Amino acid sequence: MALTESNTFPIGTRAPEFKLIDVITEDYFTFEVCKGEKGTVVLFICNHCPFVLHINDKIVELANTFQNKGIGFVAISSNDVMRYPQDSPGMMRIHAEELEYSFPYLYDETQEIARRYDATCTPDIYVFDQNDNCYYHGQFDSSRPGNHIPVTGEDLAQVLDELIAGEAPRKKQLPSIGCGIKWKI
Fold it and tell me: Which CATH number, 3.40.30.10, 1.20.120.790, 3.40.350.10, 3.20.20.220, labels domain 4-180?
């Protein structure tokens, strides 16, 4: 597994819009539909990445906690399913149902949305404020597969608490690290 770091996504950048199909409901969702009253988390993930699998349970836990506090959550998979069939919509649906995702899991077939967000890895995590401006783009926490640091979701949870409290965005934001998005050739 090759390590890929997230690109810089400037704080204050407006959330790129999307309209993608949810693999569970088969309905189309936009950013506007997914956003929360106090902010929105956009996660670029996939089914097979060991970095995502490592934090998946905690993602679900944090989503369940913060959705009740006015934060919207949405996950997007943009991987090339011809080369990685385990990331296909059918497999995404099974994965989301098994983990009991409480948020839409959207399929970005053309990879256009990943490009709009300048997403590079899984997980790639974006937090937008109530005005849809980027508040945070960084790591979930310091845990990685094999580094023996417990998965806490500490960075994301603290950022969401700060957003809800009306604090200014953090000046220092550590990039996310994971598998590279599997781009179509």
Answer: 3.40.30.10
